[in-house]
Specification:
8-stranded parallel β-sheet, globular, 255 residues, alpha/beta, TIM Barrel, 12 helices
Length: 255
């Protein structure tokens, strides 16, 4: 049984005051929901404030990125050691980090290992762009990303990782991928790659989210799929009502 997980990636949104208001609203609205893990991923500036609000409830805090070193001359970076007092999770390898900041598969792998070493749950993002999708390269590309991210991890470590499948062409586009197609890609490509690296048991233990224009009006279709264990959400995580609707859907469809 894989427990559903809904993670809100606030990206570069929300001042500290706005983050506090949003977190308070989500906390109040989810107190009676127990069937899904909830992760809030604010910008670095608001992590401490958000963590203070949820420190005595099941809501978890995640960072949107981190460096793989504990400390050093890396101006502008934040280390896993710095996050470990505030966060339980960290998003790694998001497509925007890969596209705009030159992150590589090798770097993502280093970050995954560093996160696990500091008891942070990595949420590892993988996904193809539109050209790759239309040219039939999804399997090779996404499978390669999965294998690179998990390189050198033991089966026990792998089972702690959350994978977020986010087809780049669906992120922020307002049009999500087809749920049954996503389910097939996760089952055949992502879980297939994990089975090659480890075994079927480990493959089935890893939680896999979908990310890309998930909204209250389509979330039920995704959560009903056998291979989808939650969502990594952008825009819909920035308002209490829409985010809570996603959490409720995931809790209803607990695998």
């Amino acid at each position: 049984m894989r427990r559903p997980i809904i993670a809100g990636n606030w990206k570069m949104h929300k001042s500290i005051a706005q983050a506090v208001t949003l977190t308070q609203g989500i906390r109040a609205a989810t107190q009676s929901i127990s069937g899904a893990d909830i992760v809030l991923c604010p910008p670095f500036t608001a992590i401490a404030a958000v963590a203070d609000i949820v420190n005595d409830c099941p809501i978890q805090v995640g960072a949107q990125n981190m460096h793989w070193e504990d400390q050093g001359a890396f101006t502008g970076e934040v280390s896993p050691m710095m996050l470990s007092g505030w966060c339980q999770c960290v998003i790694l390898g998001h497509s925007e980090r890969r596209q705009f900041f030159g992150e590589t598969d090798e770097g993502v792998n280093k970050k995954v290992k560093a996160a696990l070493n500091h008891n942070l749950i990595p949420i590892v993002c993988v996904g193809e762009n539109l050209d790759q999708n239309e040219m039939g390269q999804t399997e090779a590309f996404v499978g390669g990303q999965v294998k690179a991210a998990f390189a050198g991890l033991t089966a026990n470590q792998a089972a702690q990782v959350v994978v977020a499948y986010e087809p780049i062409w669906a992120i922020g586009a307002g049009k999500a991928a087809e749920p049954d197609a996503v389910n097939a890609i996760i089952g055949r490509i992502i879980r297939g790659a994990l089975a090659e690296l480890y075994d079927e048991t480990t493959s089935q233990a890893v939680r896999v989210q979908y990310g890309g224009s998930v909204k209250p009006d389509n979330v039920d279709d995704f959560m009903a799929q056998s291979n989808i264990d939650g969502a990594l959400v952008g825009g819909a995580s920035l308002a209490v009502d829409s985010f809570v609707a996603l959490v409720k859907s995931a809790a209803r469809q607990g695998k």
